[in-house]
Amino acid sequence: MKKTFKITVLEGLHARPTTLLVTTVNSFESEVSITYEGKTANLKSIMGVMSLAISAGAVIEISAIGSDAKELIEKITEVIISQGIGEEC
């Protein structure tokens, strides 16, 4: 399952929103990754996500594989939108 988002928070995915996203997905069993400009990182790893240096206006893809992938994508979508991190593409 995959979903694409545009990052709207002015600072991009700096420490606070990254921590929020990682915390959100860590309660799920599915494998989840984030892709930006052809580079992919495990969304359960703060350092992995931070290493992508995702800036404001960036388009990212979040993909999940596993038994609760649908619920994970629904939850991460809710968090990204409700916390003002980004919007669906």
From TrEMBL:
Listed CDD domains: PTS-HPr_like
Cellular component terms (Gene Ontology): cytoplasm
Gene3D superfamilies referenced in this protein's UniProt entry, alphabetically: HPr-like (3.30.1340.10)
Presence of keyword Secreted: no
Any one GO BP annotation for this protein: phosphoenolpyruvate-dependent sugar phosphotransferase system
PROSITE patterns, A to Z: PTS_HPR_DOM (PS51350), PTS_HPR_HIS (PS00369), PTS_HPR_SER (PS00589)
Keywords (A to Z) from UniProt: Cytoplasm, Phosphotransferase system, Sugar transport, Transport
Start and end residues of each HPr domain: 1-88
Role: General (non sugar-specific) component of the phosphoenolpyruvate-dependent sugar phosphotransferase system (sugar PTS). This major carbohydrate active-transport system catalyzes the phosphorylation of incoming sugar substrates concomitantly with their translocation across the cell membrane. The phosphoryl group from phosphoenolpyruvate (PEP) is transferred to the phosphoryl carrier protein HPr by enzyme I. Phospho-HPr then transfers it to the PTS EIIA domain.
Species whose genome carries this gene: Lysinibacillus mangiferihumi
Subcellular location: Cytoplasm
Protein name, per record: Phosphocarrier protein HPr
Family: Belongs to the HPr family.
UniProt xrefs under SUPFAM superfamilies: HPr-like (SSF55594)
Pfam families, per database record: PTS-HPr
Principal location: cytoplasm
